[in-house]
């Protein structure tokens, strides 16, 4: 027995709750009958129009904030790709056929993203319930003589608390956004590498986490040691926000100074590890550093608990530089020299350093992500550094950011 085919358009049209469908740029592309009844509008007045063109704030209400609140919710949906439930909103609607005349309305909105095959928001379903009768028929301060006063007082209190909760949530989001912007500005300033301008063969990328309110402590650095020697490094500080960004700046500067005085990456990492033990926020930081000697065509590298650098050859051969790995910074109590290893390279080879946000996924072993990276390098190693950096981010699914920060260096040797 075959299952009958469902006419989803017909089902949507008669769904009891009011719905409209928006594109990511907030154009109305579909609406059901319940929404038309609730708003008193026609399909022609809505379909194909910008949401806030057909639903502006009531100009006669100086306290109107419906547009601002709804737009903030829709932008959160686009950024997080998650449903956003709003508190009850006063959002007056224009009366059809009477320009400039509005009807007072209260709504309970829910905004739900619909993702496409690429994981991006394709549409937003905007669902509302008309709360106008509830709000207008219940006094916010019912007298004791009123029948059912206790219940009505509780309902009114719940409504008031919901509005207050929304206000506090908005303030919290704004505070987080300010901290994120401040941390990003600080991080971008500290990631500046003056020596990078002289290396057209090096591409760098920094991608903040896409679904986090805070930035993390990932960094990259490029330092010239002599006319034919330079060093590249990446690192990852545990933690989030301004503290992690500040710790990142201190560690990055310390390693940059150490490697200028001590060209061996293992010994420079020793100095950084001792420094990391002097303040708690730096403990368990991971880092990888490589010194490139262009005269002798060799790379000397070391890693402090960090994913291994990768050396890719033009013929598609890919080598993990994993022969000099030690625990993260500050975790070894008894001071022991950190190991370093040296590998030869040929002109046209590509060296890649990165942080774990590029390869780690919560639902899979890290070796799967590492294999995805090496497979991508093997297929695309002929690309130029900038193109290859963008291809790596795209092929590993983090071109628009991932769950964690990402620092990436691609060096064409």
UniProtKB/TrEMBL annotation:
Residues 151-189 form a coiled coil. The keyword Coiled coil applies. PANTHER family: STAGE II SPORULATION PROTEIN E, STAGE II SPORULATION PROTEIN E-RELATED. The keyword Flavoprotein does not apply. GO terms for molecular function: phosphatase activity. Pfam families: PAS_4, SpoIIE. This is Protein phosphatase. It comes from Streptomyces rapamycinicus (strain ATCC 29253 / DSM 41530 / NRRL 5491 / AYB-994). InterPro entries: Bact_Sigma-Reg, PAS, PAS-like_dom_sf, PAS_4, PPM-type-like_dom_sf, PPM-type_phosphatase-like_dom. Residues 4-58 form the PAS domain. Residues 201-413 form the PPM-type phosphatase domain.
């Amino acid at each position: 027995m075959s299952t009958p085919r469902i006419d989803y358009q017909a089902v949507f049209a008669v769904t009891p709750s009011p719905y409209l469908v928006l594109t990511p740029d907030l154009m109305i592309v579909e609406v059901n009958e319940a929404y038309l009844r609730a708003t008193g509008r026609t399909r022609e007045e809505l379909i194909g129009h910008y949401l806030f063109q057909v639903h502006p704030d009531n100009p006669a209400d100086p306290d109107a904030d419906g547009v601002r609140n709804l737009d903030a919710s829709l932008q959160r949906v686009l950024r997080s790709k998650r449903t956003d439930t709003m508190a009850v909103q006063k959002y007056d609607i224009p009366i059809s056929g009477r320009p400039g005349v509005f009807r007072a309305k209260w709504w309970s909105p829910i905004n739900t993203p619909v993702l496409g095959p690429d994981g991006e928001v394709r549409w937003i379903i905007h669902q509302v319930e008309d709360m106008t009768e509830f709000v207008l028929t219940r006094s916010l301060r019912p007298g004791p003589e009123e029948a059912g006063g206790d219940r009505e007082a509780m309902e009114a209190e719940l409504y008031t608390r919901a509005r207050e909760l929304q206000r506090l949530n908005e303030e919290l989001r704004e505070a987080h956004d300010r901290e994120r912007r401040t941390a990003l500005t600080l991080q971008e300033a500290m990631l500046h590498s003056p020596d990078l301008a002289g290396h057209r063969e090096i591409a760098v990328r920094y991608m903040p986490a896409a679904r986090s309110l805070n930035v993390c402590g990932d960094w990259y650095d490029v330092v010239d040691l002599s006319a034919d020697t330079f060093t590249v490094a990446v690192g990852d500080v545990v933690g989030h926000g301004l503290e992690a960004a500040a710790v990142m700046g201190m560690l990055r500067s310390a390693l940059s100074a150490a490697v200028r005085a001590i060209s061996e990456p293992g010994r420079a990492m020793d100095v950084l590890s001792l420094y990391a033990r002097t303040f708690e926020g730096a403990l368990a930081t991971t880092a990888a550093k490589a010194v490139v000697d262009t005269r002798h065509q060799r790379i000397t590298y070391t890693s402090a608990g960090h994913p291994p650098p990768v050396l890719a050859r033009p013929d598609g051969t890919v080598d993990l530089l994993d022969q000099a790995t030690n625990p993260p910074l500050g975790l070894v109590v008894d001071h022991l020299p950190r190991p370093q290893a040296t590998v030869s390279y040929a002109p046209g080879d590509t060296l890649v350093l990165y942080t774990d946000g590029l390869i780690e996924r919560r639902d899979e072993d890290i070796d799967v992500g590492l294999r995805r990276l090496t497979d991508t390098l093997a297929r695309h190693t002929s690309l130029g550094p900038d193109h290859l950096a963008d291809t790596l981010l795209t092929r590993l699914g983090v071109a628009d950011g991932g769950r964690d920060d990402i620092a990436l260096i691609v060096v064409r040797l």
